[in-house]
TrEMBL record:
One of its GO terms (molecular function) is oxidoreductase activity. Gene3D superfamilies: 1.20.1260.10. This is Rubrerythrin. Transmembrane segments: none annotated. Pfam families: Rubrerythrin (PF02915). InterPro entries: Ferritin-like, Ferritin-like_SF, Rr_diiron-bd_dom. Residues 9-147 form the Rubrerythrin diiron-binding domain.
C-alpha cells in the first residue's frame, strides 16, 4: 500500500473512531441503567485508545514515511457475562427501553462497519506493522460487536413482545 493511500485510510479510521467515541459517550449519558453507563463509557475509552494509536501512526507515517513498529492500544474493555452491557433488571423493564435497543442497533452497525474497514485495510497493506495494527483493531471491534449482539439477542424477544411486534418469517 502506498503511503498516500495509507494516510487516507488512517484519516478515515480516525474519523470512524471519533464517531464511535461520541456515540458511546452519548449512549452513556442517555441510559439510566448504571451498568450500561459504565459499559458505554468503557467502549468510548476503547475507541479513544484506537483513535490515539491511529493518530500516532498517521503523524509518524506522514513525517517519516514508515509505520511505528510498536503498537500502543492498551487493554480492551472486559465485556462478559450473560448480559454484557446492561443489568439483568433492564430486561424486566424492556418496554420502556427504546433508547437502549436503538443504541445497541446503532452500535452494532458502527462496529460492523469498522470491522469491514479494518479487514480491508489489513488485506490491502503490504507492511507487516500496518497489517498487525489493522488486525488488532479488527479483533477489538469484533469483541465489541459480539457483546452488543449478545445483549441484543438477550433483550429482543421481550422487546418485540412488549412492542407487539412479530417479525415475518
Amino acid at each position: 500500500m502506498e503511503t498516500k493511500k495509507a494516510l487516507e485510510g488512517l484519516k478515515i479510521a480516525m474519523q470512524t473512531e471519533l464517531n464511535g467515541i461520541e456515540f458511546y459517550r452519548l449512549a452513556s449519558e442517555k441510559t439510566d441503567d448504571f451498568k450500561g453507563k459504565e459499559v458505554f463509557k468503557s467502549l468510548a475509552e476503547d475507541e479513544i485508545k484506537h483513535f490515539n494509536e491511529l493518530k500516532r501512526q498517521y503523524e509518524h507515517l506522514l513525517k517519516e514515511n514508515e509505520w511505528l513498529s510498536h503498537i500502543e492500544l492498551g487493554s480492551p474493555s472486559i465485556l462478559e457475562g450473560e448480559s454484557p452491557i446492561f443489568t439483568e433488571e433492564l430486561k424486566s423493564r424492556i418496554k420502556e427501553r427504546h433508547f437502549e435497543m436503538s443504541a445497541l442497533s446503532i452500535g452494532a452497525l458502527l462496529e460492523t462497519n469498522s470491522i469491514d474497514f479494518y479487514r480491508r485495510m489489513k488485506e490491502e497493506s503490504d507492511d507487516p506493522v500496518a497489517r498487525e495494527l489493522f488486525r488488532k483493531l479488527q479483533e477489538w471491534e469484533q469483541r465489541h460487536l459480539s457483546a452488543i449482539t449478545k445483549q441484543i439477542d438477550l433483550l429482543k424477544e421481550d422487546f418485540w413482545a412488549d412492542a407487539q411486534f412479530s417479525p415475518l418469517y
